[in-house]
Amino acid sequence: MSLTGKTAVVTGSNSGIGLGIAREIAKAGADVVLNSFSDRDEDHALAAEMTKELGVNVRYIQADMSDGDQCRALIEKAGACDVLINNAGIQHVEAIESFPASKWDAIIAINMSSAYHTTAAALPLMRAAGWGRVINIASAHGLTASPYKSAYVAAKHGVVGMTKVVALETAEEPITANAICPGYVLTPLVEKQIPDTMKEYNMTRDEVVKNVLLKRQPSKEFATVEQMGGTALYLCSDAAAQVTGTTISVDGGWTAL
Ligand code: NAD
Q1: Per-residue pLDDT tens for 205-223?
Q2: DSSP 23
Q3: Count of CB atoms within 10 A of residue 88's CB?
Q4: pLDDT 10s digits, 31-50
Q5: What three-state secondary structure class fits 175?
Q6: Residues with CB under 6 A from ligand 1
Q7: DSSP H helix total and E strand total for the chain
C-alpha cells in the first residue's frame, strides 16, 4: 500500500510504539512528523536519519502533549495531517488511595485529552484534503482493567469512547477513526515497570515477564512495535475504508479471556 503524498503526525514518537508506527508509515511512503516533549539534538537527528534511510520527509516537532495549546500547535506546525496517530502516553502504578493527584492529572492529559486537542485541530485539515485517518493507540486497558492503574485505565477507556464519537461525527466523510488496543509490547514504558515489580514480588526479571506482565497475555509473547505499525497501515488502507469507530486488539488473546 502506498501512502505517498500523505502526511502522518505521530504523537510521542521518539521511542517505543510511536517510533515503530512512524517507521512503518514512512516505509509506505508518507511524510512523517515525529514528536515528543523533549527538544534534544538526538530527536532531530532521528528525523534526519529516517529521512535519509527511508527517502521521505521526516520532521521532528517538539510539543508537550500535557498542554492542550501545544497539542493544537503541533498540528498547525505540521501544516498537513492526513493520518493522525495519537500515541503519546505515560504510566503510573499505585493504589488509588495513595495515587498522586499530579500523576492522575498528567496521565489524563497526556493519554486522553491530548487526543481531543489534536483531533480537533486535525479534522479541518483532513476535510480540506478529502481523506483522513485518526488512529488512537489505546490499550487492552481501554477494554479491561488491572488494579493500581486507575488513571491509565480511565484514560484509555476514555480514548476508546472518544474514538467512537469521532467516527460518528465523520461517518459520512472519507475519514475514519479507530483505536488500536495493544497488549504488552516491550518498550521503555514497560521496561520501567519491571524493576519495581521485581522488588514488590521478590521475583527475577524472567519471572516478572512470564508470571506478571504476560500472565494475562495467553500467547505468552510480547506484541511488537512493527505489528502496531502493520495494524496502523491496515487502518490506512482502502480495505479499512468502512472500518470506523471500532477497536482492534493486538494483545495475544488477552481480551478473549
Ligand atoms: P514509550 O515510553 O516508549 O513511549 C511513549 C512516548 O510518549 C515517548 O516517545 C515519549 O517521549 C512520549 N511522551 C511522553 N510524555 C509526553 C508528553 N508530555 N508530550 C509528548 N510526548 C510524550 O511507551 P510505549 O510503550 O511506546 O507507549 C506508547 C503508547 O502505547 C502509549 O499511549 C501507551 O499507553 C500505549 N500502550 C503501550 C503498551 C505497551 O505494552 N508498551 C500497551 C498498550 C498501550
Answers
A1: 999 999 999 999 999 999 9
A2: H
A3: 25
A4: 999 999 999 999 999 999 99
A5: strand
A6: 12-18, 35-37, 64-66, 87-90, 110-111, 137, 139, 182, 184-185, 187-190
A7: 10, 7
Model-wide pTM > 0.85: yes
Phi and psi, residue 128, nearest 5°: -65, -35
The label of the residue with cell 485505565 reads 153
CA distance 189 to 185: 9
152 flagged as catalytic: yes
The H or E element spanning position 67 is none
Q: Among residues 60, 116, 148, 152, which one is catalytic?
A: 152
Q: Output b/e per residue, 169-179; b: 16+ Cβ within 10 A.
A: ebeeeebbbbb
Amino acid identity at 48: A
Among 253, 118, 117, which residue's Cα sits nearest to residue 181?
253
